[in-house]
UniProtKB/TrEMBL annotation:
<protein>
    <recommendedName>
        <fullName>GAF domain-containing protein</fullName>
    </recommendedName>
</protein>
<dbReference type="InterPro" id="IPR029016">
    <property type="entry name" value="GAF-like_dom_sf"/>
</dbReference>
Length: 168
């Protein structure tokens, strides 16, 4: 996983140097993590602004378009979504198909549409503040300590440490 971490962070740096598309990096990360969909958002004026969203090529095109359009800007008051909860709580938010268990009704609905089992949103912290979120939906169930979870968390930490989101 360390090699994949290094590769993905080099790709993020290439995006910032305008040599790559954010879509390329998200596609690679989604592949490594075995995801159905992945997105990156930055906090801005009480909302999350989508920097990139990618979905598995097998996913229904209408679902992809709808999710992408509805998450271009997301109010931080929409606490039924894991991406919002992760930023507000400044800790990972796990969405499951069971909305009552996760408390994330919106995430549960999207998981069903994505034909996924779980989503996990990792806040991107810069200093002591959540400035964004990196989220993925998968067919797998992961938890802290699993290699996939740890890789995503490590990437989110590094994005914050290098202050990448402010450069997009």
């Amino acid at each position: 996983m360390q090699q994949q971490f290094t590769e993905i962070m080099e790709q993020f740096e290439s995006v910032l140097q305008r040599q790559r598309s954010i879509s390329d990096v998200l596609d690679r990360l989604m592949e490594v993590l075995g995801g159905r969909a992945i997105g990156l958002w930055r906090c801005q004026s009480g909302k999350l602004v989508q920097l990139g969203f990618r979905a598995d090529s097998q996913m229904d095109e209408q679902v992809k378009r709808e999710f992408s359009a509805l998450t271009q800007e997301v109010s931080l008051k929409n606490t039924g979504l894991g991406i919002v909860k992760a930023v507000i709580d400044q800790k990972p938010a796990i969405g499951t198909l069971q909305a009552k268990e996760s408390g994330l009704q919106g995430s549960s609905e999207w998981l069903q549409k994505f034909d996924a089992k779980q989503s996990y949103a990792i806040p991107i912290i810069e200093g002591d503040q959540a400035i964004g979120v990196l989220a993925i939906s998968t067919n797998q169930v992961h938890q802290a300590g699993d290699p996939e979870w740890e890789l995503q968390a490590q990437i989110a930490r590094e994005i914050g440490a290098k202050q990448f989101l402010g450069m997009f």
